[in-house]
C-alpha cells in the first residue's frame, strides 16, 4: 500500500520549446502536482527551464531522459542547474531505453543495464556530494569513473535539496535496483494494477530492504491510458486508439511478462508477428474488453476521475493519465473532479 494521504496527479509538458511554458502554466493553474517531458523527438531538459520559469509550485521532471545516451557528469550538471533554477522542484527521471537504440541511434555502449543504471545513479550522488559538501570526488566503478573536480568546474552549492532521481523500471531486476538507489519509480502504461501489486511493489520493497530503507523513502508512480470523449462517437474513437496502443506495447518483448501474468502470453507472439507486417489495425482488434480494462480506464467523462482513483489510490503515490485523443476541454472536465 502506498503511504501518504493524497494521490498526486501529473500531466505532460510538450518537449517542443514553443509549447512548454504555456502547458506548464496550465497544469499549475489546474491544480496538477507535476509535469513531465519525454525524450522523443526533442531534448527533454530544455523545456523544463521554461516550465520552471513560468510556474512556482509545479514539480517538473523528465519522464524519461535516456541515461545511457549520456554520462553521469553531463546529467549531474544539467540536473543541478534545473534544480537550482526551479528552487527545488526538479525531478530527474531516468530510463535505459533498449539496446538497439543505445548502440545504433546514440552510438553508446550497452551492457548489464540494471548494474549500469545503479552505478549511474551512484555516480550522480558522488558528484553532487562533491559539489554540495566539498566531498573529494573519487568515484571508480565498472562503467563510470569520475576522479577530477577542481574549483573552476564546481557549481555553487544548492540552497535547496539535491534533485530527486526517479528510475523507469518494469522488470523485477531493474525495479529492485530502483528500490535500492532511487527516490522514485516511474511506471509504464503497459502495466496493470495487478502487475503493480504482485510484481512491482514487492520488488521495490526487496530493494528498499536491502538498502535499509522503507516504503516512505520512495514515490511510486503509474501511467494509465484513458479513453473518454464528449459523446459516444468520441468515446469509440478514443477506445479504438487505446486498443491499438496496448497492442503496440504488447508486441514488444519487454512487456511479455506483463501479459503472462494475466494468462495472455501467447498474444505477444501474434502481436509481434503482425507488427513486423505493419498490421496495426489488426493488432488493435485482438485487444478484447478484459485486456482493455486491465491496462486502461474507459468511460464517459464524468466517470474517469472516480475510475482513476479506484485504480490508483492506495496502490501508487502519483498517477499520470494519458489521454490519446481527448480534447483539452474534455481532459479538463475529466480531471477537475479528480482534483477536488
UniProtKB/TrEMBL annotation:
Gene3D superfamilies: Luciferase-like domain (3.20.20.30)
Source taxon at top rank: Bacteria
Cross-referenced InterPro entries: F420-G6PD/mer, Lucif-like_OxRdtase_MSMEG_2256, Luciferase-like_dom, Luciferase-like_sf
CDD domains assigned: Tetrahydromethanopterin_reductase
Pfam families found in the cross-reference section: Bac_luciferase
Chain ranges of the Luciferase-like domain: 15-310
A molecular function (GO) term: oxidoreductase activity, acting on paired donors, with incorporation or reduction of molecular oxygen
PANTHER family assigned: CONSERVED HYPOTHETICAL ALANINE AND PROLINE-RICH PROTEIN (PTHR43244:SF2), PTHR43244
Name this polypeptide is given: LLM class F420-dependent oxidoreductase
Organism: Mycobacterium numidiamassiliense
